[in-house]
Design brief:
Residues 295-309 form the Glucose-methanol-choline oxidoreductase N-terminal domain. Residues 575-587 have a biased composition (Basic and acidic residues). Residues 588-598 have a biased composition (Polar residues). The structure is a single chain. By secondary structure, the protein is of the alpha/beta class. The chain folds into two domains: 1-114 and 233-329 and 442-455 and 523-561, 3-Layer(bba) Sandwich (FAD/NAD(P)-binding domain), CATH 3.50.50; 153-220 and 336-436 and 464-515 and 563-598, Glucose Oxidase, domain 3 (2-Layer Sandwich). 24% of the residues lie in helices and 21% in strands. Strands 1, 2, 9, 10, 11, 12 and 23 form a seven-stranded mixed sheet that branches. Strands 5, 15, 16, 17, 18, 21 and 22 form a seven-stranded antiparallel sheet that branches. It has a three-stranded mixed sheet with strand order 3-4-6. Helix 14 packs across helix 15 (505-515). The protein starts with a helix and ends with a helix. It binds flavin-adenine dinucleotide and 2-acetamido-2-deoxy-beta-D-glucopyranose (5 copies). Flavin-adenine dinucleotide binds next to helix 3, strand 2, strand 10 and helix 9.
């Protein structure tokens, strides 16, 4: 079997590779969220020999990642980050911004903010529809949510669970510990009281049951006081030492290579990588499959480096086009976010921790010694998923950008501190992150040059469409309404961090463009479509279209909701690009700022 595969390599390639090629059944590129799960599941079968190539270091070299609350300090521009920066963003006043991606075993699950959201039923049912594969539907996915989740007691005790989640819909038999915040925060009661008082932000006990809407307790991937990443779970000690799994750290893959032709399709069963910066090139072959799990940036970069992409663009770059798949790297969709701050009276916020090394040292030793304190939490304990009202002029004019009625347009992350870096030198804050979660803007990942190791050109197109920008403005107005509840009256002093200068819609436009950033959820650069369909990059089984031996399994296959704007009730079949300029958009109402929040 192995011998015949080697024979099928082109003669030139087999000469080059003769001394350096190791052979496996599966070669997985990237040990992140997807790659680590695959490495675990495939090596359950003792007959499969699996190689996992991870560009970054071992998670075990960074025990600090265990502390949930410090996640915002793990990126950008650290030893665990790919250190990407975007191209200038027209929707962000022309700024180029950091674009963090986890670099190490565990991938972005090693550095992320731990917030556990399954997503909405509408979105999974939409995946099933666009891929013509019922296996992607919400109902079909339940089996996998159950296999993944081990819902565990939080540090503060199991008795709170019933109040905070619907235990019925959770699994206690999966691999990944998930819980609620383990330490009460000083604003928990105020948040719930404000929600009860206003009505607009309805409390929901459970956001992971298909209907995401409402305000409730965050669920997070923690195991007691510690982060659960895919490295600590799916590749925990028990699995990492399986004899049929080899993990190579510091192995950055440049491309996949054609090894032959099968049923008239080119087969790509060889991987080229370099061992650490400046190292010589190495090769690994897979008798069954190469699986790219390099993520929404890494996967399209590797495909394009390999000659799989738009033939014309590749030729222009000096890369030999081998498979014409024009959608590789297209349709990048990401969630923009703004961190909004309000100055508050109490000094019991976490801002002192964020700015003061002495407080940090104290809390970290408390966490290490007792497993207690607010470091067991993530940045927020409450989250809200909200829709614009059906009669909002944005919706009536342009249609609904969400996947369905139980899916959100925007999200809040409510924090007992201002989650910006660097932290303001003084003051105590209430922070509300506002995120646009059904964005219509689409960007791309492109190659900078024919150098396979050069940083790619990343354009997440944040707030590019006036629609997305307007939804962000609506979300911030909603946050202002939330803070205006009497539950906050003896707590909040007033808007801060730039928000205090916003007195008109024009001010708000400027504030949004100057403060929005990525909230780290890029998808769609190798999106799935129906078998046989020309658009998209992979079939519903995640095999690359028109190619043998190569699959993509990571967030790049997730295809964001397509949104077609209505103009006078007519589907223009163009995305947000056709909407009026910001100043003319519907839904503007200057008087709102003059009168202040009700
Ligand atoms: C700062 C931050 C905060 C986030 N917060 C949350 C949150 O709170 N909740 C949530 O649900 N999601 C969050 N996310 C998003 C979430 O982590 C990602 O959606 C998810 O990890 C994507 O999984 P993936 O397998 O596609 O990619 P990743 O987990 O990013 O894994 C890709 C892996 O491939 C490796 N790789 C890439 N290129 C190569 C190459 N050429 N050769 C070898 N290896 C390579 C990378 O080093 C990495 O290990 C956050 C992300 C970030 C960065
Ligand atoms: C990112 O930058 C940090 C800080 O300069 C550095 O330590 C790290 O090695 C860089 N990451 C990569 C992948 O080069
Ligand atoms: C789930 O977590 C509990 C601890 O809360 C642990 O005892 C149990 O073994 C875990 N289950 C699995 C399947 O890992
Ligand atoms: C916080 O405020 C309380 C009074 O509300 C005061 O006693 C305490 O010293 C303050 N702590 C700090 C660190 O400023
Ligand atoms: C992605 O975007 C391109 C245009 O940029 C479009 O032609 C294509 O059909 C889109 N859809 C998918 C699923 O990739
Ligand atoms: C603008 O908003 C204010 C306050 O919410 C409201 O009273 C007023 O009717 C609105 N005006 C228009 C034109 O929608």
């Amino acid at each position: 079997m192995r011998f015949s595969l080697l024979l099928s390599l082109t003669s030139l390639l087999s000469q080059t590779l003769a001394s350096t090629t190791d052979e496996f059944d599966f070669v997985i590129i990237g040990g992140g969220n997807a790659g680590a799960v695959l490495a675990n599941r495939l090596t359950e079968n003792p007959d499969y020999k699996v190689l996992l190539l991870e560009a970054g270091p071992s998670d075990l070299d960074f025990p600090v990642t265990d502390i949930p609350f410090i996640s915002p300090s793990l990126t950008p521009f650290t030893a665990l980050d790919w250190n990407y920066t975007t191209v200038p963003q027209p929707g962000l006043a022309g700024r180029s911004i950091p674009f963090p991606r986890g670099h190490g075993l565990g991938g972005s699950s090693l550095v992320n903010y731990l917030i556990y959201t399954r997503g909405s039923k509408d979105d999974f049912d939409r995946y099933a529809e666009v891929s013509d594969d019922p296996g992607w539907s919400w109902d079909s996915m339940q089996h996998y949510f159950y296999k993944n989740e081990n819902f565990t007691s939080p540090v503060e005790g199991a008795d709170v669970l019933d109040r905070k989640v619907d235990v019925e819909i959770h699994s206690m038999t999966g691999m990944m510990p998930v819980s609620v915040s383990g330490s009460a925060t000083p604003i928990d009661k105020r948040i719930l009281n404000a929600a009860a008082e206003l009505g607009e932000f309805k409390f929901t006990r459970e956001m992971n049951g298909g209907d995401v809407l409402g305000l409730g307790w965050i669920q997070l991937t923690t195991d007691g006081p510690k982060r659960s990443s895919v490295a600590s779970t799916y590749l925990g000690p028990k699995y990492r030492q399986r004899p049929n799994l080899q993990i190579i750290f510091g192995a950055q893959v440049s491309r996949v290579m054609q090894t032959g032709t099968e049923n008239e399709e080119p087969a790509f069963r060889c991987v080229e990588y370099r061992l650490r910066l400046g190292g010589s090139l190495r090769y690994a072959a897979a008798s069954k499959e190469v699986i790219s799990s390099a993520g929404t940036i890494g996967t399209p970069q590797i495909l394009l480096n390999s000659g799989i992409g738009d033939s014309k663009t590749l030729t222009e770059l000096g890369i030999e086009p081998l498979v014409h798949l024009p959608d590789v790297g297209e349709n990048l969709s990401d969630h923009p976010g703004v961190v909004n701050g309000w100055l508050v009276h109490p000094n019991t916020t976490y801002d002192d921790f964020a700015r003061d090394p002495v407080t940090q040292a104290e809390e970290i030793s408390k966490w290490a010694e007792t497993g207690k304190g607010f470091l067991v939490n993530t940045i927020s304990s409450h989250i809200a998923f909200m829709r614009l009202p059906d009669d909002n002029p944005l919706i009536t004019t342009y249609g609904d950008s969400a996947a369905g009625p139980k899916s959100a347009h925007y999200e809040f992350l409510i924090s007992n501190w201002l989650t910006v870096a660097p932290s303001p030198e003084t003051g105590h804050y209430l922070g509300i992150g506002t995120l646009v979660v059904s964005p219509t803007s689409r960007g791309s990942v492109k190659l900078r040059s024919a150098d396979p190791f050069a940083m790619p050109l990343i354009d997440p197109a944040l707030l590019k469409t006036p629609y997305d920008h307007a939804v962000m403005c609506e979300a911030i107005k909603a946050a202002q309404r939330f803070v205006s509840a009497s539950a906050w009256s003896d707590h909040v002093i007033g808007p801060a961090n730039g928000l205090e200068h916003v007195h008109s819609d024009e001010d708000l436009d400027k504030y949004v463009a100057e403060n929005a950033k990525t909230i780290f959820h890029p998808v769609g650069t190798a999106s799935m479509s129906k078998r046989g369909e020309k658009t998209g990059v992979v079939d519903p089984d995640l095999k690359v279209k028109g190619v043998a031996g190569l699959r993509v399994v990571d967030a790049s296959v997730l295809r964001a909701q397509e949104h077609f704007f209505l103009e006078n009730g007519v589907d223009t079949s163009k995305r947000g690009d056709v909407t009026p300029r910001w100043s003319e958009r519907p839904g503007k109402n200057n008087s709102w700022w003059r009168s202040g929040p009700e």
